[in-house]
Design goal:
The protein is of the alpha+beta class and 92 residues long. It is built from 3 helices and 4 strands; from the N terminus they run βαββααβ. Strands 2-3-1-4 form a 4-stranded antiparallel beta sheet. The protein is globular. It starts with a strand and ends in an 8-residue tail after the last strand.
Length: 92
Protein backbone atom coordinates (compact mmCIF):
# COMPACT_ATOMS: atom_id res chain seq x y z
CA UNK A 1 0.00 0.00 0.00
CA UNK A 2 1.07 3.54 -0.73
CA UNK A 3 0.28 6.74 1.12
CA UNK A 4 -0.79 9.90 -0.63
CA UNK A 5 -1.07 13.52 0.44
CA UNK A 6 -3.92 15.21 -1.39
CA UNK A 7 -4.44 18.94 -1.36
CA UNK A 8 -7.75 20.52 -2.32
CA UNK A 9 -7.99 24.18 -3.27
CA UNK A 10 -11.57 25.37 -3.04
CA UNK A 11 -13.16 27.17 -5.95
CA UNK A 12 -14.88 30.55 -5.72
CA UNK A 13 -18.47 29.28 -5.22
CA UNK A 14 -18.40 28.98 -1.43
CA UNK A 15 -22.19 28.72 -1.20
CA UNK A 16 -22.15 25.60 -3.38
CA UNK A 17 -19.19 24.25 -1.41
CA UNK A 18 -21.11 24.67 1.86
CA UNK A 19 -24.17 23.03 0.30
CA UNK A 20 -22.20 19.93 -0.77
CA UNK A 21 -20.02 19.72 2.38
CA UNK A 22 -22.33 17.38 4.35
CA UNK A 23 -22.35 14.83 1.49
CA UNK A 24 -18.58 15.19 1.12
CA UNK A 25 -18.05 14.54 4.84
CA UNK A 26 -20.41 11.54 4.80
CA UNK A 27 -18.41 10.15 1.88
CA UNK A 28 -15.15 10.69 3.77
CA UNK A 29 -16.64 8.78 6.72
CA UNK A 30 -17.06 5.75 4.45
CA UNK A 31 -13.40 6.00 3.42
CA UNK A 32 -12.31 6.23 7.06
CA UNK A 33 -14.38 3.13 7.82
CA UNK A 34 -12.61 1.30 4.96
CA UNK A 35 -9.19 2.35 6.28
CA UNK A 36 -8.47 4.31 3.12
CA UNK A 37 -8.62 7.84 4.53
CA UNK A 38 -6.16 8.38 7.39
CA UNK A 39 -6.53 12.13 8.02
CA UNK A 40 -8.47 15.01 6.57
CA UNK A 41 -9.42 18.54 7.36
CA UNK A 42 -9.62 22.06 6.01
CA UNK A 43 -6.86 24.59 6.36
CA UNK A 44 -7.47 27.24 9.01
CA UNK A 45 -7.93 29.89 6.29
CA UNK A 46 -10.67 27.74 4.68
CA UNK A 47 -9.02 28.06 1.26
CA UNK A 48 -8.60 24.30 0.89
CA UNK A 49 -7.91 21.07 2.70
CA UNK A 50 -5.31 18.37 3.25
CA UNK A 51 -6.20 14.68 3.11
CA UNK A 52 -3.94 11.66 3.66
CA UNK A 53 -4.93 8.39 2.02
CA UNK A 54 -3.63 4.84 1.90
CA UNK A 55 -4.35 3.05 -1.37
CA UNK A 56 -2.87 0.31 -3.53
CA UNK A 57 -1.77 2.85 -6.14
CA UNK A 58 -2.55 6.26 -7.58
CA UNK A 59 -5.20 4.87 -9.92
CA UNK A 60 -7.16 3.51 -6.95
CA UNK A 61 -6.79 6.82 -5.12
CA UNK A 62 -8.02 8.78 -8.15
CA UNK A 63 -11.10 6.56 -8.20
CA UNK A 64 -11.86 7.59 -4.61
CA UNK A 65 -11.32 11.25 -5.47
CA UNK A 66 -13.57 11.04 -8.54
CA UNK A 67 -16.38 9.60 -6.40
CA UNK A 68 -16.17 12.46 -3.87
CA UNK A 69 -19.26 14.71 -4.01
CA UNK A 70 -16.93 17.71 -4.21
CA UNK A 71 -15.64 16.42 -7.55
CA UNK A 72 -19.14 15.91 -8.91
CA UNK A 73 -20.23 19.37 -7.77
CA UNK A 74 -17.13 20.93 -9.36
CA UNK A 75 -16.36 23.04 -6.28
CA UNK A 76 -12.61 22.37 -6.33
CA UNK A 77 -10.32 24.72 -8.23
CA UNK A 78 -7.38 22.34 -7.89
CA UNK A 79 -6.55 18.88 -6.60
CA UNK A 80 -2.91 17.94 -6.09
CA UNK A 81 -1.87 14.34 -5.46
CA UNK A 82 1.58 13.38 -4.22
CA UNK A 83 2.77 10.01 -3.03
CA UNK A 84 4.06 10.48 0.50
CA UNK A 85 6.55 8.49 2.57
CA UNK A 86 5.80 9.02 6.23
CA UNK A 87 8.81 8.13 8.35
CA UNK A 88 8.01 9.56 11.80
CA UNK A 89 4.90 10.00 13.90
CA UNK A 90 1.73 8.13 14.68
CA UNK A 91 0.86 7.25 11.08
CA UNK A 92 4.04 5.26 10.58
Amino acid sequence: MARFAVQFVYGPDRDRLAEVRPKHRDYLDTLVDKGVLLLSGPYADMEGALLVFEAADEAELRGYLAADPYAGAQVLAETTVREWNAIKGTLV
